[in-house]
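Incident review: delayed structure delivery

Summary: a single-chain prediction request sat in the queue longer than the usual turnaround. Root cause was a stuck worker, restarted by the on-call engineer. No data loss occurred. The affected request and its eventual output are reproduced below so the record is complete for anyone auditing the incident later.

Affected input:
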Amino acid sequence: MDNRFLVKTICLLMMAGLLCGAQDVPQVTLHHTGDMGKLYRDWPVPPGTRYTVKKITVKEAEEKLAKDEIRLAVTTVPLQKKGLKTVKFAYQAAIFAVHPSNPLRDITLEQVRLILDKNQGSWRTFGGPLARLHLYIKAKPGLPPPSMRHDHTHGRRKMPRTILQPEPLGGIEAEKETTPSKVNYNQPLRFQTASDARSFSLLTTDVLGMACFDITRFDENRVRILSVNRIPPTLENFRYGGYPLLTTWYLTVPESPTEGEQKLIDYLWSRKFAARLYRTGLLPEQQNKADKKPRRQ
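Output delivered after worker restart:
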């Protein structure tokens, strides 16, 4: 009986030790909205740290915030709570551009929606000729770019023209055809490209072209960058939230982070992670000096 009692006691003590050890393991949890979970999961977790990445909706983020279940988060809405600090972290937006000879300077938000969501819009929509708009847009990852349509003719032009004086679609030979193909001029042609750089190279030779690309190209000077509702895509308008197509990402951190949380915060503000955001199509925000060293517990 004494031996059995001794064995049971030892087992209980061992279990208690394991439980205490498990409780001592640093816990770091990052909540996020959107589809960038892979970027956060690639954090080189320090040895002995338990790290979890959880995707949530904005509504779930607000519910968890009310229950004090959030300490670290990257969301599209600022999370306000005593003991937490929220700062702007990155920006995401669509930027539009046209050929350098194109006189167009501004488009409305409604025109953007017609082109992107409803697949409607021609150059007549913008006060130009009855000609199809050639929209260049970067293909989504995993989708092969489609082949060019036969009525895309920017390669046949010998000299640039404005959209007010375009060359007839199909060139001179097309005018001689007795049965020309039917073209819906109100429906733009969409050309998926491998990258923003490819979109630019095509746009510089196509007077009937328009390109949609990531916010990281807002300072491009080879083409004419368009304003939206008369608000240009500038760094100042991004930081103050004025650009109509802007999505702002916010980073929420505890005012007194644990050691493990501080290491993750340092990683999210590192140049390495900023470069990854940039390659993904987001414009990273620069960290304020006052935010660099939060108090640790």
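Verification: The first strand starts at residue 27 and ends at 32.
Action items: add queue-age alerting; document worker restart procedure.
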